[in-house]
Amino acid sequence: MARPKRFHKMIRIGPVEVGTYRDDRGREKHTAACTAPRCGFSTDYADRSAAELAARTHHCAP
């Protein structure tokens, strides 16, 4: 059974939250996820700057 992801270094950029976690192999990963209803945007990145850039440029579908 997979462990739940434990996020730290959370920031919010508009409706998108960016958080950092460690994967199963101990590598640091970064996630950007939109919290708007019915959006569904969520991606993982290898570095924090890419996740923050995705958060800044994300636009929810109307």
Automatic annotation (TrEMBL):
Protein name as it appears in the record: Mobile element transfer protein
Organism: Streptomyces albiaxialis
Superkingdom field: Bacteria
Cited InterPro entries: SpdB (IPR007806)
